Amino acid sequence: MDDAKSYLTSTTPATEGLFKLLNQYGWQKMRAIVDMTKSTTRDEIEEHKSKYSSVDVAREVIAGSILQIAFVAIKEYGVPQEKPPLVLEFEEQINKLISASPKTRCKNFSLPAGFCVGRELGHLPIGLVIYAARNQYNHFYEDRLSVVNEVIFNYLNQLWPSPRNGLSFNLYDGKQFYAYSALAALGWTDTHKRLGYTAYAEDMAHLLRAEF
Question: Is residue 40 predicted with pLDDT exceeding 80?
Answer without folding.
Answer: no
